[in-house]
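Chain A, query sequence.
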Amino acid sequence: MLLLALSVAPGLAICFYIFHKDIYNREPKITLLISFILGMLAIIPAYLLESVLIPFFGNSILATAIVAYGIVGLSEELFKFLVVRYYCYSRKSFDEPLDGIIYAVVVSMGFATVENIGYVMQHGYSVAIARMFLAIPAHATFGVMMGYFIGKAKFNPSKQNSYFLQGIFWAVFFHGTYDLFLFLQGNPNINPLISDMLLFSGAVASLIIAIRMSKKQISLHQKLSQKLFKPGMMALKIQRASIEDINTIRELTFKVWPQTYAAIIEKKQIDYMLDMMYSEAALEEQMLHHQHTFIIIYDDILPVAFASYGPSGNATWKLHKIYILPDQHGKGVGRFMINHIMEYVRLKGGYSLILNVNRNNKARYFYEKLGFNIIGEEDTDIGSGYFMNDYIMEKKLQE
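Chain A, predicted structure.
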């Protein structure tokens, strides 16, 4: 019974530790429990794959490296990733980048706990103590590294696959490096001058590096969580959007439009306009064939706003779209974005910047504060019996 307790305790302790790193918006305990159990089950396909492939490799240094990185490291981290990707990633509670780390570590601890039970029950107390301070924390660091990039992927859809691959790569790299040093102990192809203790030290050194990286990654995502749930200073940056960013633009749109227009136009018209102007095909058409330049504003890695603009003739430019997440209003995001656009237009020789705003939209007053003036009204028939009833506003950029 004591051996079983020693097998299970380290993984649960790390789960408890990582749970309390989520300060602002903790995950539902039932979701974490299911994640842990799925992590336990993930060991089955990983070990089956290892048992089939490992016998094909000998004990040369190259073969041992292939086993460490390409079979053990890759198979175990891949099946952990699949749990996080296809269960945790789609949860509504996954609402901040730090959650990627939380879920990946919990899944890793489920996996590591089952593995630990097998080793400890077979080899006894000395292995239980050693793995408590080495193997289990190692699995946790692999989870942090993977989860760090999964968290970034969640809030950067256009770079999702790239971040997924980075997460898997770093988890496999450190997993494989740690295992390689251990697997080489006692290998007949190793120079006798390289003692087992030296190889063990290599494993420990790789773990220490992984722990330091993990602590930094946790800290970075904690700062992002603070921005989300206790906002203060922002670190805004502008990125010019491309076709690959269309999903990010659409996600922002569907978060902004219902709150912006629900009190102004009926839901059927909102749905109609979203389909007409914000489908993937429509946005691609605007980017490629209508000279609309799109920009996305990020607060660190979090997309918080977007805009599009382009030339309208006679040294006049038009601001076609500008939308900011509702919880970012009043933080200077809109002013930051419009100032950037006005400076760009000036550099291009533009004389004025115009825009359309719904006559019942309070954003009109924001534009007036920035120096825009109403120069006319426009009622545009957009089909299906719907109209856009707008003010036309202008700001002179060249005196």
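The chain has two domains: 2-229, 236-396. The longest helix spans residues 196-229.
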